[in-house]
Design goal:
The protein is mainly α. The protein has 5 helices and no strands. The chain is globular. The protein starts with a helix and ends with a helix.
């Protein structure tokens, strides 16, 4: 669920996984693993991704 949410917001901002990784100071492979649900994200990583996507952290973790 988290991975799909990250992917959806990344696509809305028209940002590649590589660019999101750069903006969030993460490795691009890690971003891909998160989106595929292969890795779990810490709170720190969620904050980095949310800031890079310019959205509140709650947007990533709240079910709609």
């Amino acid at each position: 669920m988290l991975g799909r949410t990250i992917r959806r917001h990344r696509a809305r901002r028209k940002v590649s996984q590589q660019k999101l990784a750069e903006l969030a100071d993460l490795h691009h492979n890690y971003v891909g693993e998160l989106e595929r649900g292969e890795k779990a994200a810490s709170i720190d990583v969620l904050v980095k991704i949310a800031r890079a996507l310019r959205i509140p952290v709650r947007t990533l973790v709240t079910r709609l």
